[in-house]
Amino acid sequence: MTLLVLAAGWFLGAGLAAYAAAPWWSGALAAYAAAPWWSGALAAAAGAPWAASRWGRWGTVLALAAAGAALAGGLRVAAWQAEAPPELLAYRGQRITVEGTAEPDPGYGETTRRYTIRAERLVAPEDRPISGRLVAIVDQYTHFAPGERLRITGELRAPRSSPTFDYEGYLLERGIVGEMVRPRVERLGSREGAAWAIMAAEARAAIETALGAAVPEPEASLAAGILVGRDEGMGRELRERFRRSGLAHLVAVSGSNVALVTGAVFALLVPLAGRRRAVVPAAIAALAYAAAAGGDPSAIRATIMAGVFLAGLTIGRPQAGLPALALAAVAMTLAQPRLLNDVGFQLSCAATAGLIVWYPWADTLLARALAALRLEWAVPRSLRSIAALTLCATVATAPISWAAFGTVSFASLAANIIAQPLFVPAFALSAAAAAAALAWEPAGQALGLAAYVPLRAIVWTAELFGSQPWSAAELSPPGELATLGIVAGLVALGWWAARRRPLASEGRAPSRSQRTLRRAAIGGLAGAVCAGAAFTAADLAPGPGRLRVAFLDVGQGDAILVTTPNGYDLLVDCGPSGLVLLRELGAVLPPWDRTIDRLVVTHPQADHAGGCAAASGRYRIRDGAAWNGQPSTSDAWRALAGAVPPPTPLAAGASWSRDGVTFRVVWPPAEVDFEDPNDASIVLEISFGATRVLLTGDIESAAQAALTDSVGAVDVLKVPHHGSATSRSSFFAGTAPKVAVISVGEGNPYGHPAEATLRALARIGSAVYRTDAHGRVVVYSDGRRVWVETER
């Protein structure tokens, strides 16, 4: 109780200073003025007459102590607010050169990476030591090692905020003053930083790479998010589905992760070494995991709480949850006052407090409700506990989510009841797959197939609930007073719940037949999850006697996966983004298939070759890569050339066959230099029975004129150059495709596809499919007829 009072004082003082811009001493004054309330509340909470008398006498003393804690909290926040801004801020808007070190864990964009650079020295326009951090936005092929020393030159720009998020303020609280977009970088050849931090960052990167080798996307990124909080490869749309369904906490390192690791180590060692000797290894495991997870605030909070509980076991004094949470929250905000404004920290603390004070009540009320409905036998206690925990966490965090994001999830309870039982096997199997892949990749891939089942089921749950219009409500954030009132009401409810224990529900024990029926239902559900994952995977496998041509939705670019009846995979182009390509390949290849038989790059421009390095890093390119033989100095091409054996040139006349499918290169002619690199694109004709497919790269008018008479009619045409106006109507008339596919990104800045192209295709009666409108377009043929399936 004493610790809770002191923590309340601390946050009263710190909160008034941080949120209300009140003087640093105002919290202490408020705490002292509330001395009578402290005395009465503590006396009422004591429960026994002698205890009430004792607390009544000491209430004023505790109120004074709370006032002292409030004074300390206010002073700490005032000192933080008075800190001078980073010196680098004065150079915003200027072109500068700085030397500094790269921090770990870059952020990933579709075609970029965002590294935080800790500046140490300003080189130009003047030469002197300097403080501050900046974000360097570089291309997707650039990698900096944690702690690597760099000299970077570029314009230091102010970050862009949106109407709903003060991104500039968010970065400034972390000492980040601006951004450099594609700066000139010079590597200085050394590394600096704490050895443990560099090792932890390298461990995270190794785990992320190992999971990528063992599990396809987006499940690999989900696994990395569950294990170490690195979910960058999931994509914006899927992350939004997780948020709307109330499952976003699963892809962030949270207290439950720390509890799993600590509890597992402790439980394994107790039979071998006893409870006391198991404490230290369990504490070390918690610390190591928190460090490996990047020091996420929720992980640090859970680690401190785990340390308190383990210390209590050592000295024989079991610790209560609320005091442990209070100690963790005070310690963290003392070390980093900016956490007071960190929404993730607020959500973590609120959810934990809600679980501690409301869970017994929620569990009991659910048990009574099930008993009243005579269904207590049908719902296992573990499932009832998940529902109670989800309800408590959802209610506790709802005001913060509403105020910070303007969103309230209605699907959270149902989605978590399905997803939470899958979390533990997903966590354990993902960890096992990563460890095995680090030792021997085939073993990791075998365990990765096991991990794929719960991971796929979690993704399916998020997609199912997150895509529903009713899953979440977008509401105008409440005002400050309304938010304060809601939080105060929940705190009062929590105080009431913490002072009382609910009467245990005396449900009837299930009969033998009911237990048998329940086990059968649980087994059936588990079997359904496994069968669903197996069916999804099997549906991606090649079909006998069937050619599949998948036009992947990679945005503004081309990527086409051709699969023959027996599973020969030809990847034609890779789109602009490695992250997007990997997600698309994960959607069309079965999870056990980690091989692409051949890669053909029609021409080495970024929108066709940008993702090739990522593909060759995740998948084995069995027969190597080929390209049109034209010289290129693009970053995308250099990355591909360095990632696989040197690509071989491919020209008209080359052909090969697999499983009754013939691939014939009809353009470009060998040893011809082209002024326009688009006209040098490889044009590939694919024949299967009576079906002909023509993949045209970005050829424009000149190349089309040369091909019109020689190619003839086709069943499926990949419309050249994203449907731009550079195509000839005569080319479309000559090829007369039944199906025309345009690979183009939404909101194309060049106006693709052109209206003239669409009209020309309409005149010849082609069925037109566009990746910007239909998503992924998959064309099938049995050698006689052609049919099409689309993502949306």
Name its key features.
OB fold (Dihydrolipoamide Acetyltransferase, E2P), globular, about 800 residues, 8-stranded mixed beta sheet, 4 domains, alpha/beta, single chain
Shape: globular
The largest sheet, given as strand count, sense and whether it forms a barrel, is: 8 strands, mixed
Question: What is the total number of structural domains?
Answer: 4
The computed structural class is alpha/beta
Can you give the mean pLDDT? Answer: 86
Query: Which regions contain 5 or more consecutive residues with pLDDT less than 50?
Result: 45-55
Write up what this structure looks like.
There is one protein chain. This protein is an alpha/beta fold. The chain folds into four domains: about 1-80, no CATH class; about 85-195, Nucleic acid-binding proteins (OB fold (Dihydrolipoamide Acetyltransferase, E2P), Beta Barrel), CATH 2.40.50; about 205-515, no CATH class; about 540-790, 4-Layer Sandwich (Metallo-beta-lactamase, Chain A), CATH 3.60.15.10. It has 26 helices and 27 strands. The strands form five sheets. Strands 1, 2, 3, 4, 5, 6, 7 and 8 form an eight-stranded mixed β-sheet that branches. Helix 1 packs parallel to helix 4 (about 50-80) and helix 14 (about 380-405) packs across helix 15. The longest helix has about 35 residues, at about 50-80. It starts with a helix and ends with a strand. Residues about 45-55 have low confidence and may be disordered.
